Structures are given as C-alpha cells and as structure tokens.
C-alpha cells in the first residue's frame, strides 16, 4: 500500500486538474449555487482501433434505423401496445402519440421536423465484443462533457506529461478525436436555419431548450448553448411548466414563445419521467395531463424537434428488444440493405421478453450472472442483476411483465493498469476500472446532419467493475476519454 500511496498525485496536480474542470464548465451546480467539478479519470482508457472504427461505422446506421422506425407510426402503435398497458408513463406517451398522429391516414397537423440527437451506449465485452447497452433518444446529453474530457486529457498530456504517461494504460496509445460539442451544435444550427428558411424569416434562429426545474446538470447544457450562440443562434431555456402558459401558434403553424418570438428548434432535456410533467399546484385528476399536453402542443407545429414522442418510443428498451429479436431481413421495412442490417445486428446484445416461459427458463436453466433485468427507466437505478433477478421476477404481477426485459449482461475489459479517479477534489486509486462508450449521432428528417456523416463525437464513462451504477451524475462513474491502439 505504501508504494501505491507514494505513486499518487501531488496536491498541486489535483488542484490544477480540478480548477481546469471548473474553469471549462465540467461541473454540477450545487443547491447553494456553487459548482463542484465532475468526477474524472486522470488519464484516458484504451480501445483497439478496429473495435472503435467498427462502432463509428455501425452507430450512424443504428440512428438511420431508429429514425425510420420513429416515423413508422402504425408500427409503433401496433408493437408497443402491451408496453403501454404495463408501464403507465409509456401509456401516457402512447396516448400522446395517438393524439399527434391518429390513424395512419390522419394528418391533422403540419409535420414537426424530427431532429434525432441520439447517444448509443456500448460496452466492449471480453467475450462477445462491443455490444449496445441502450439507445438514448431523449435528453441524450453530456456530449459537451465528452469533448471536454478529451480536451482535459490533452491538457494533462501537455502540462503534466510525466503524470499523464505514468497513468496512461498504453504508452503508444493515440487520443481519439472528439467533436461532441461542436458537431451537436452544428447539427442543431443546420436544422434551425432550415426551419427559418421555410418561413423566409430573418434574424437569429431561436433554439429552445426544455429543462427540468432546479436542475443541477446545467453546465453541460450551457456549454451547448454557448456553442450555438457562436453559430449565430439565440438560445432560451424554459421548463414545461413555464411553457404551458407561454406558447402560442403563429402564421403557418409557427411555434411562438411569449417575449421571444418564433422558435426554430425545440430540444428536450426533460420529459423522460413523470416528474418532469408534474405540478402539485395543478391538482390534476389525471396525473401530468397539462404539461404533457404542452409537449403535444409543440409537436403540432412546424419546428425542428428533439425528441419527438415517437423518437422516445422508438428508443425504448421494449423497442430495443423487438429490434434485437428481428432478423436482419426485417430491417428492409425501414430502408436498410442486408449489409447495413447485419452491421446493426452485430452489436445488439441478446434480449428476452419477460413472460411465464422465460421466467421458468431463468429460474431453472439460466446462468444468472450472465443476465440483467431492465425496466423502461432512463438513467441509473433501473437494473437488477444476478441472483436478485429471480426475487424481482417473483414480485412482478402478470400485468407488469411487458415493462421489463432480460438482457445479456456485458462484462467489459478491465483497465490493464490502475488509474486515479478524482471526485470532490479527492483522489482514489482504482484498479478494476471498466468503461462504457456512448457515441453521438444526429439525423434531421431522416438524413445525417453532421460534418462526419451523422457521427457527432463520444462520451466515455468509467466505473469500478464492482459497481453496478456507472452514471456520472447518478452513479459511481467518472468522466473519461479514449485512446486507440493498433
């Protein structure tokens, strides 16, 4: 232990790293309006270049698929009906989707223009290779933090080269370029200018970010806003509660925000859970009706929108399971050729529905530690592992089954050498770090809309292998970046 302690970082390095993070907005807001730095790794992880390049090739194809699925409204209604009955929140989303799109021939409103900003999360499994953990189609944030993490490690390499090299997993590894912030802003700005051009409007396009009340993860959001401002956009932030009294309809179904004017892009960083729509003062007989209708109101206007209700449905765990269980040939319905479909299938981990047959199989035949039980929730805290799965399955009512899915558990490579995690200004040696890579993509009206053919950078989150919850915000995760080896 003494040798390990001797090799830890000096206080000067720790303070410099933490100050860099705060100065560059890599932080969370505290209740007293101060900031604390985001937890981070002192040196990046390593991945084989061919694995990374495979993910770069396949992830935009996943987004192409999801983009088409999300506009196949009849398919969404037909295939997610059981989920709607089992999960009240998704039942509400399906009801809103039905209101927005009616039957297949009912187009009562001008089409909102779907802007799919997606983060697809992967783990590089020791045995099976890189596989999808989940699709994130709403509030798929932290692209700015992803780019900042890459910049932070470049700073460490330049300013503290001996420290960086000492903790680098592979001395010859090359940093992977990361334009997560720049490319997401480019995609949003491109969509905003297209909507503005549809109305022959002048002046700055307007970007509306829908946010949670009293949110602490605001600096990641502000970094995106600043980048958009550089590209000539005006940015505004509102909660659903504020928007419920501030939105109106302009000429030709233009979305208008009181005191601001026409809105070109609406970007939802809220809306993935009931609490985002709940206002106690409204005392509603049906939970969250008013604010969810505000979301529907946005959908009924000519505006670039992420996430549409249908995008949220199409990136659900239930839809992930259905796409996983389909054949590659089935993807032809959504415009993928066989080669593209096989690429997508190559990164989808096995999933099984929860029903009496699979419960019996799990309890009597399955190797339990090879599976994880997931519900439809976003963020951390929604997974059950190993032996605990049987107990959870026994608790579920029959009507709850369709809200859950069994998924092959992924066991990523542990980092070859220990590293330093820094949290709240304190360093800790971690010798079993594993990483999750989220690749960002952007499609507008079904077409790639970044300068990198739809790809838009990455986010690396690492955690001790012994921890189940790896979120930066809600778990034991730390911000990280990526280097490549041949």
Automatic annotation (TrEMBL):
<dbReference type="GO" id="GO:0005829">
    <property type="term" value="C:cytosol"/>
</dbReference>
<dbReference type="GO" id="GO:0043295">
    <property type="term" value="F:glutathione binding"/>
</dbReference>
<keyword id="KW-0547">Nucleotide-binding</keyword>
<dbReference type="Pfam" id="PF03917">
    <property type="entry name" value="GSH_synth_ATP"/>
</dbReference>
<comment type="similarity">
    <text>Belongs to the eukaryotic GSH synthase family.</text>
</comment>
<keyword id="KW-0436">Ligase</keyword>
<keyword id="KW-0067">ATP-binding</keyword>
<dbReference type="Pfam" id="PF03199">
    <property type="entry name" value="GSH_synthase"/>
</dbReference>
<protein>
    <recommendedName>
        <fullName>glutathione synthase</fullName>
        <ecNumber>6.3.2.3</ecNumber>
    </recommendedName>
</protein>
<dbReference type="InterPro" id="IPR016185">
    <property type="entry name" value="PreATP-grasp_dom_sf"/>
</dbReference>
<keyword id="KW-0479">Metal-binding</keyword>
<keyword id="KW-0460">Magnesium</keyword>
<dbReference type="InterPro" id="IPR037013">
    <property type="entry name" value="GSH-S_sub-bd_sf"/>
</dbReference>
<dbReference type="InterPro" id="IPR014049">
    <property type="entry name" value="Glutathione_synthase_N_euk"/>
</dbReference>
<keyword id="KW-0317">Glutathione biosynthesis</keyword>
<dbReference type="InterPro" id="IPR004887">
    <property type="entry name" value="GSH_synth_subst-bd"/>
</dbReference>
<dbReference type="GO" id="GO:0005524">
    <property type="term" value="F:ATP binding"/>
</dbReference>
<dbReference type="GO" id="GO:0046872">
    <property type="term" value="F:metal ion binding"/>
</dbReference>
<dbReference type="InterPro" id="IPR014709">
    <property type="entry name" value="Glutathione_synthase_C_euk"/>
</dbReference>
<dbReference type="GO" id="GO:0004363">
    <property type="term" value="F:glutathione synthase activity"/>
</dbReference>
<comment type="pathway">
    <text>Sulfur metabolism; glutathione biosynthesis; glutathione from L-cysteine and L-glutamate: step 2/2.</text>
</comment>
<dbReference type="InterPro" id="IPR014042">
    <property type="entry name" value="Glutathione_synthase_a-hlx"/>
</dbReference>
<feature type="domain" description="Glutathione synthase substrate-binding">
    <location>
        <begin position="206"/>
        <end position="314"/>
    </location>
</feature>
<dbReference type="InterPro" id="IPR005615">
    <property type="entry name" value="Glutathione_synthase"/>
</dbReference>
């Amino acid at each position: 232990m003494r040798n390990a302690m001797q090799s830890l970082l000096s206080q000067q390095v720790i303070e410099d790293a933490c100050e860099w993070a705060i100065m560059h907005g890599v932080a969370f807001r505290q209740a007293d309006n101060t900031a604390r730095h985001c937890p981070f790794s002192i040196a990046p992880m390593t991945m084989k270049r061919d694995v990374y390049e495979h993910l770069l090739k396949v992830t935009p194809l996943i987004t192409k698929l999801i983009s088409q699925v999300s506009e196949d409204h009849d398919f969404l209604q037909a295939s997610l009906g059981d989920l709607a009955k089992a999960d009240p929140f998704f039942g509400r989303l399906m009801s809103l989707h039905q209101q927005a799109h009616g039957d297949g021939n009912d187009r009562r409103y001008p089409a909102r223009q779907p802007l799919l900003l997606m983060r697809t999360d992967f783990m590089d499994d020791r045995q099976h290779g890189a596989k999808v953990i989940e699709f994130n189609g709403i509030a798929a944030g932290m692209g700015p933090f992803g780019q900042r993490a890459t910049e932070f490690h470049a700073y460490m390499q330049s300013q503290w080269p001996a420290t960086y090299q000492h903790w680098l997993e592979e001395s010859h590894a090359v940093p992977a370029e990361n334009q997560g912030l720049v490319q997401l802003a480019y995609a949003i700005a491109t969509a905003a200018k297209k909507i503005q051009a549809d109305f022959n409007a002048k002046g700055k396009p307007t970007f509306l970010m829908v946010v949670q009340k009293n949110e602490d993860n605001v600096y990641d959001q502000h970094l995106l806003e600043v980048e958009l401002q550089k590209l000539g956009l005006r940015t505004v932030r509102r909660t659903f509660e504020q928007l419920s009294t501030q939105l109106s309809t302009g000429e030709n179904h233009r979305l208008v925000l009181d005191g601001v004017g026409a809105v070109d892009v609406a970007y939802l960083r809220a809306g993935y859970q009931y609490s985002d729509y709940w206002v106690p003062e409204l005392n509603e007989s049906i939970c969250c009706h008013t604010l969810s209708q505000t979301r529907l109101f946005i959908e009924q206007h000519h505006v670039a929108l992420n996430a549409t209700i249908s995008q949220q449905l199409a990136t659900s765990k239930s839809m992930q399971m259905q796409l996983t269980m389909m054949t590659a040939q089935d993807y032809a319905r959504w415009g993928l050729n066989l080669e593209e479909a096989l690429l997508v299938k190559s990164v989808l981990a096995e999933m099984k529905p929860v029903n009496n047959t699979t419960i019996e199989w799990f309890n009597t035949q399955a190797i339990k530690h090879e599976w994880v039980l997931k519900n439809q929730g976003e963020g951390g805290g929604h997974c059950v592992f190993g032996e605990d799965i049987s107990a959870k399955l026994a608790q579920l009512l029959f009507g709850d089954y369709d809200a859950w899915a069994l998924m092959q558990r992924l066991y990523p490579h542990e980092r070859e050498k220990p590293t330093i995690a820094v949290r709240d200004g304190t360093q800790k040696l971690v010798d079993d770090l594993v990483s999750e890579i989220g690749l960002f993509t952007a499609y507008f009206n079904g077409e790639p809309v970044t300068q990198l053919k739809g790809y838009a950078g990455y986010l690396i989150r690492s955690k001790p292998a012994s921890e189940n919850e790896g979120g930066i915000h809600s778990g034991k995760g730390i911000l990280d970046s990526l280097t490549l080896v041949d």
